[in-house]
Amino acid sequence: MRRTLYLIPLLVCLALLARAQSQINGTVQINSGGDIGIYNALTFNTGYVITPRNAPASNISFQAGSSYAGASNTSHVNGYAEKVGNTAFTFPVGDGTTLRPMGISPPPTPSSVYQAAYFGVNPASATLPAGAPFSTSSLGTGVARVGTSEYWDVNGSSAVDLTFTWNAASNLSTVVPTGIMSNLIVVGWNGTQWVKVGTGTPTTTGTLSGAGTITVSSVTPDTYTAYTFGTTTLQLAVTTNPSPVTVTSGTGNTVSLPSVLNPTGGTGPYTYTSVDPTTGVASNTTAHGIVNVNPTTGVMSYTSTPGYSGPDQATIKVCDSSSPALCNTVTVPISATLPVGSGSLDCSTAQILGVTPGTAGTGNLKLTVNVSGIGTFPVTISGSGMAVTTSPYVLNVTASGLQTFFIPITYSGAAFGATTITVGSSTCSPNLTAVTPTPLITSVLNLGPACAPITAATLSK
Questions:
Q1: Which range is the signal sequence, renumbered to this chain (predicted)?
Q2: What is the distance between the alpha carbons of residues 22 and 14, in angstroms, rounded to a whole number?
Q3: Architecture of domain 342-428
């Protein structure tokens, strides 16, 4: 049977009578073995209801249909509060200095009983409830850090949604140093370590630096000994799969890493370092080039091996300014392309091979270019029914000086006439009307240089 207690220091008289409206106008002490039942409405004015924290059953119990109002930092339950029934409830609990309520969704039955208490101390230093202390360095999968300012004990045998509150003193900016609300989780002590609790994605309100709430779904309170806040990651949030950065081969190219990686959260400003992808040690070499990164502006300069065209990648470590720093390492894909080449086409040596006037077919365009700057040279031929076989056709030239190329072409069988050949910015415009094909011998292999020299020997019988 619930009993009415008159244990009020400083002679502040209070009577919590069953089924009568009651008020807290001074501090009420419940001793071990005692309890108070609230059957109607309770108003917190001043003072606290103090319950023995080593005896959760000795509490103030809000029965079905009861309610309360006025809970505050200066008037709340300093210890264990209990709820009986199947309606949602917010426990008006705190530590005698701060009100730190937590709530439950409607329990499954009218006889359901739940209890809650708030402890404003480091879980690692806790002495209660049974099973304490709760090491803040013993973390389960998916838990990167837990709070060191507070925890709750919540009791109940059926699954409900749990809502926990925080304020600036909860120091969640340290718990969740990324500053990203979605990294915040509720963790429970399973007897050996802190693990993430609830199903699905938690629902949050407020700000990490101020006050707020977090609700986790479908938790059976008795599964865990204590509850507090945690975070899923200590990594700085960045774009983890950035799009390839296109650069020009052989020349210095600048890339803004802040724009590519978009770091968020943590404490700015951020720093950027090129590292070896295997060891994580600072390094400015890639598979096909050199990178130099300004650590403060994040401007990356990349120079590929001269003449290289193709994929490469730089490994970039981004850190914030907190201590210890939050970091993340990202692979930035690079696509190196050759620059636009420069040079002159020698029109006097240009030849069209394998084409018979009036007969459709394929052949080759033989061109000699005096290359002054390596790079790309687009090639076209038009007129006289001719075209490059593949359009666009681009020569990737990686050496300077006189270079000879054979470009596959198609011929429609049209009459020869004015023809235009372009290679890069150079153009030849021959008129093929009066040009007579010259028979040539093809497929000649000169094997001389490939033959090994004969070594003199003496033959004897």
A1: 1-20
A2: 8
A3: Sandwich (2.60)
Answer positive or negative: Cα dihedral of 367, 373, 375, 379: negative
The CATH number of domain 245-337 is 2.60.40.10 = yes
- With a pLDDT cut of 70, the percent of the chain lying above it is 90
Distance CA 368, CA 287 (A): 33
- CB neighbours of residue 365 within 10 Å: 23
* Residue 41 tokens, joined: 């409405």
C-alpha Rg value of the chain to the nearest Å: 40
Within 8 A by CB and 6+ apart from 461, the residues are none
Q: Is the dihedral of CA 215, 217, 221, 222 positive or negative?
A: negative
> Which residue type is seen at 207?
T
What's the CA gap between 252 and 301, in Å, rounded? 6
Contact 360, 413 (CB under 8 A): yes
How many CA atoms does the CB half-sphere of 455 hold within 13 Å?
Answer: 1
> CA–CA separation, 241 vs 420, rounded Å?
45
- The DSSP code sequence of 120-187 is -S-GGG---STT----TT-B-TT--EE-SS-EEEEE-SS-EEEEEEE-GGG-HHHHSTT--GGGEEEE
Place of tokens 């200095």: 97
The two three-digit tokens of residue 317, written as one number: 């470590």
Dmax (CA) of the chain: 137
Confidence of residue 440 (pLDDT cuts 50, 70, 90): low
**CATH 2.60.40.10 in the chain, residue ranges:** 245-337
Query: In this predicted structure, what is the pLDDT of residue 258?
Result: 96
Choice among 176-185, 281-290, 445-454 with the minimum mean pLDDT: 445-454
Residue with tokens 């790309």: 376
